[in-house]
Write a structure and sequence with these properties.
There is one protein chain. The protein is α/β, with parallel strands linked by helices. It has 2 domains: 40-194, serine acetyltransferase, domain 1 (Orthogonal Bundle); 200-239 and 246-319, 3 Solenoid (UDP N-Acetylglucosamine Acyltransferase, domain 1). Helix content is 44%, strand content 13%. It contains 9 helices and 16 strands. The strands form 3 sheets. The chain has a 7-stranded mixed beta sheet with strand order 3-6-9-12-14-16-15. It has a 5-stranded parallel beta sheet with strand order 1-4-7-10-13. A 4-stranded parallel beta sheet has the order 2-5-8-11, with no helix packed on it. The longest helix has 24 residues, at 74-97. The termini are far apart. The relative contact order is 0.06. The model has no long low-confidence stretch (mean pLDDT 89).
Length: 319
Amino acid sequence: MTDRQNKEFNFKDEAGQAVQLLLRDYQGGRAIDRIASYREPDQNAILHVIRELFQIVYPGYYRDPDTTRRVFNMDAWISTTLDDILINLAEQIEIALRYTDAFHLKSAEDVREASQKIAIEFVRRIPRVREYLDTDVQAILDGDPAAYSKSEIILSYPGLYAITVFRLAHELYLLKVPMIPRIMTEHAHGCTGVDIHPGATIGKYFMIDHATGIVVGETTIIGEHVKIYQGVTIGALSTRQGHSLQGKKRHPTIEDHVTIYSGASILGGQTVIGHHVVIGGNCFITSSVPSNTRVNVKNQEEVLNGPARKDPDFIDWVI
């Protein structure tokens, strides 16, 4: 046997041993050891549902060429797409419901029926989602001089993409579907850099400008006509208590007509940003701000100054 043949034989032997070592490692019974993939929601199936939902939410902007070639009638095309969404979404919900105490021990028939009802209720809510998204598109058009048309916004703005996925995922979150809403918003996070938890509550006319690096936490409440720029965090204070904080208000409340410029961080469940507030770039805020206030960074000491403008309704809060 030549040296070359000997090396090849040894490599295969070592490779086989390494594979066996890994296969034994899967037997540890840990959460990361599940190798029966059919027991977990399928990310690819959920992403497929997201793509089809965009076709329903924005018909005429997002199309499946294969489907449109086969179905020429618009109503038939929408019905066909919705049927596919319902079948795939119900299947994934059925898998996810097994993670809840309410369905863990129920029969397969009961879980399947519940998942189908949730999927149908979700589809019934799409018109309301579209109502909100229409205002979001308008807010971007009104607020961004670089936007030349609603078509441009729908087809190219990452902020709107993230908002759209969030609003759809939020409805599943309200229907108490586990895992799937978070998979949806984390997909949008990966695509756009915008991390909006599906549990957040966000009103109409929401605008994200430039996107990228934005974080909106689970218990955040955002009113209407709110505009935020890149790098903004609306988050929690120290979470050293970890899982024990689940279900508690950990993130701020942002009232109507608030603008938050790039790099600002607003933290804490008791923090309320009043209406018509402007938060300057790179501000770090952990306490409430009164309405009609402009907040800017000057030094590390908080100083409440008198009005800097003739408008008596506004005060400047320098931090």
